[in-house]
Amino acid sequence: MSSGRREFLKLGAAAAASTALCPYPVFARGAAPKVVVIGGGFAGASCARALRTIDPAIAVTLVEPNPTFTACPFSNNVVAGLRELSAQQFTYEHVAAAGITLAGTSATAVDAAARSVTLADGARLPYDRLVMAPGIDIRWGALPGYDEAASASMPHAWRAGEQTLRLRRQLEAMPDGGVVVISAPANPFRCPPGPYERASLIAHFLKTRKPRSKLIVLDAKDVFSKQRLFQQAWAELYPGLLEWVPVSRGGAVTAVDPTTRTFVTDFGRHKADVANVIPPQKAGRIAEVAGVADRSGWCPIDPVTFESRLEPRIHVIGDAAIAGAMPKSAFAANSQAKTCAVVVARLLTGAAPSDPKLINTCYSLIAPDYGISVAGVYEPSGGQLAEVKGAGGVSPAGAPRETRAAEAVLAEAWFRTITAEVFG
Amino acid sequence: MGRLLVAAIGVASIAATASAEPPAGAVSCSGCHATSARVTTPVPRLLGVDQAAIVKAMQEFRSGQRPGTVMDRIAKGFTDDEIRAIAAWYAGQR
Questions:
Q1: Whether residue A2 has pLDDT greater than 50
Q2: Domain range for residue B37?
Q3: CB-based contact, A259 to chain B, within 8 Å
Q4: How many other CB atoms are there within 10 angstroms of residue B64's CB atom?
Q5: Each residue of A371-409: pLDDT tens digit?
Q6: What is the pTM of this model?
Q7: Does A365 touch chain B (CB under 8 A)?
Q8: What CATH number is given to the structural domain containing B7?
Q9: Tens digits of per-residue pLDDT, A308-340?
Q10: What would you report as the CA-atom Rg of chain B, rounded to the nearest whole angstrom?
Q11: What per-residue confidence (pLDDT) applies to B5?
Q12: Domains of chain A
């Protein structure tokens, strides 16, 4: 990605020179183009870095209130006691060193007409292009009984950090013979295979540490990502321990009671010793404030430019975006981010965008040495990002354990690689 | 990213090594194929790799001649032209 266009670099150098001679910020034609990126996760931080690498003439500001990023991929290993939370945490030191201005506070408003972002401290950041990567927010109250206070006794652990540790501590404190219940939401939500990886690794924890216990997954769906592979592995590794209840057999949770850790379904009640509610979600709140989220709570985008279908010059990437067939994964977010950076750099020079092609690869662990994957290739088609037919798919069914072990190794290598690219 | 950043620091060095902007699909590869020399991974690096070697590997993954874990599934999503363009771009990266 160490490329740039000569014409643009000349323009940028001239602009830099003129700025140096002028005591006031220059926003006139020829000034260094300004891109503001909201959100410092896999999507936002990737995009900010890619923009700087593609074209160092672009002035990039990253708006992110947290000094530390806590990654969700591999956080299920933390829940299951297989990994420490510190292995999930990254600072923005190298992001700043790449020449990106960090605004260490949150964005409170976006004025699409005036092309400016307002920060919590009142400052305003003007932009030529805005990239929004706000991730997800929980839809508090969408599941009756599940508000923010309820997440203390029934953690979601779907935004990594304190919630992850809370769920882990509750599992550690549970007596052998206890009942763990996980509820999985309807689509769409962050990390489609995530609930099932979590169930697998919690089952691994119970099998090795508290073998008389039981795990129930109450699902609002009948089908899920990598389903056949998960179910085959569950039968092999965790028979009698892990029970998955699909919506057609009463898996849909209609309410929860946080005081008794009870899940209510149309078919009955499940009282849990440890309760993990993976709740309904929506795009991070600033998306709604900026007017780029639609009634679904997510953000419709153009599949070529990632530009919002609701507001011009605002691009939305990562989990918050409605990216057609692309799942809400860290890999997809990173792929979209870099692709979006190429498009934004082009648009800033007045060049026309060209059709992108994107990739997703998601690994899931069913045990520490048992990995599976799903991959896909995507391109714009019919106004959406559609899967390229004949490509992609999941790991082969019935593969030998060496293949599963190899994919577990590749999963960890992926995490090291992508976090090095984004935060290293 | 280290080497990329070194290349990205001076405008002069970029102008000297400038290649075309990444072709469709190219930027996605670095999700798994490390650009940093410091990352420990069994996945081969692509920066500076001979174009013909990348093309051959992709075509063999696509046809099933070469066994893969995910690359067999991913390669099927790319045409010969796309593969050649991506391979040429990586070959030109330092």
A1: no
A2: 2-91
A3: no
A4: 11
A5: 999 999 999 999 999 999 999 999 999 999 999 999 999
A6: 0.91
A7: no
A8: 1.10.760.10
A9: 999 999 999 999 999 999 999 999 999 999 999
A10: 14
A11: 36
A12: 6-65+104-137+282-354 (3.50.50.60), 140-279+362-423 (3.50.50.60)
Question: Both tokens of residue A136?
Answer: 């997800």
Side-chain half-sphere CA neighbours of A9 within 13 A: 21
Number of domains in chain B: 1
Q: Do B1 and A416 touch (CB under 8 A)?
A: no
Nearest to B39 among A13, A98, A416 (CB): A416
Q: Measure the CA–CA gap between A414 and A196, rounded to whole angstroms.
A: 19
Q: Which residues of B touch A421 (CB under 8 A)?
A: 1, 30-31, 34-36
> Inter-axis angle of helices B2-9 and A42-54, to 10 degrees?
40
Average the pLDDT over A121-141 and give the result.
Answer: 98
Interface test with B, best of A335, A421, A422, A423 (most B CBs within 10 A): A421
The residues near A182 (Cβ < 8 Å, ≥ 6 apart) are A195, A198, A199, A202, A215, A216, A217, A218, A276, A278
Where does the pLDDT of residue B94 fall: very low under 50, low under 70, confident under 90, or very high at 90 and above? confident
User: Which positions 401-420 of A are in contact with B (Cβ < 8 Å)?
Assistant: 403, 406-407, 409-410, 413-414, 416-418, 420
Q: Which residues make beta-bridge pairs with A245?
A: A218
Task: State whether ipTM is beyond 0.95.
Answer: no
Mean pLDDT of chain A: 93
Is residue A242 helix, strand or coil?
Answer: strand
